[in-house]
């Protein structure tokens, strides 16, 4: 596994970050649309999503040189949609969930999503949790490539917000 770049900092999002987070989410929504995906094309996520994430202390930003390059929600709680998997998770204990991963247009093609996941993995381990679960749309090719590259295991299908999603888990070591 590659060594983490010290130029990147993962930190909890502040309310002052909300506008930039929403801008990054909007860019990601448009990219999904341009790719022909139906993921995130139904009004979710929206500007309130980032505010709620920040208020719930689950919103995180990845900064490079004091500029927000990416966003993700990291949730240390049971994801109800994951309780009914068509397949089997690798583990049954505590886990962190990653939702709403988005990278700024300015930082595309620089491996930022990979760095974001690596920083999240370290953060999750620092909280003594050794499993990450994540889902994505069947047609989100970029996310599927990242999950494959970082050795997340395909575990089956979950239904999230009424749509089938590919579900993955990684046991952290």
From TrEMBL:
Where the record annotates domain N-acetyltransferase, the positions are 8-173
| CDD domains tied to this protein | NAT_SF (cd04301)
Q: From which domain of life does this come?
A: Bacteria
Q: Matching InterPro entries, A to Z?
A: Acyl_CoA_acyltransferase, GNAT_dom
KW Hydrolase (keyword) present:
no
| UniProt KW keywords | Transferase
GO molecular function per UniProt: acyltransferase activity, transferring groups other than amino-acyl groups
Name of this protein: GCN5 family acetyltransferase
